[in-house]
Amino acid sequence: MNTISRFLSVSAVAALASFGAHADEADASQYALKFETQRTRAEVAAEAATVVKTRSIHPAGSLALAYQSTADRTTVRAAIAEAMRKGEISSGEF
């Protein structure tokens, strides 16, 4: 019994001592990539400014900006009123 308890206590101390060998930085900084560039900060800022000016909020291939109406507001309202009188379009609730 004494041999088993001595063996278990030695193995427990060895296990606790091995945890210190595995300690490392919490942020894993040893895996961080390091870049060396030839561009200056001003060049990068100038490029970023031109990208902002050329960006669009509409997705590529969208027809949102393709249609430009030439109709006048009063003409459209008159056409809607005429279509409602003729019963071509509905109005209100059913």
Which key phrases capture this entry?
single chain, 94 residues, mainly alpha, 0% strand
Walk me through the structure.
This protein is mostly helical. It is 51% helix and 0% strand. The chain is elongated and about 105 Å long. The N and C termini lie far apart (91 Å). The model has no long low-confidence stretch (mean pLDDT 77).
Compact description:
Helices cover 51% and strands 0% of the residues.
> What's the rounded overall pLDDT mean?
77
Per DSSP E runs of 2 or more residues, the count of β-strands stands at 0
Strand content: under 5%
The biggest beta sheet reads: none
Q: How big is the Rg?
A: 37 Å
Structural classification: mainly alpha
The rough form would be described as: elongated
Order of helices and strands: HHH
> Helical proportion?
40-55%
Low-confidence stretches: none
End-to-end Cα distance? 91 Å
Q: Helix count, per DSSP?
A: 3
How are the secondary structure elements laid out?
Blueprint: H1 2-21, H2 41-54, H3 73-86
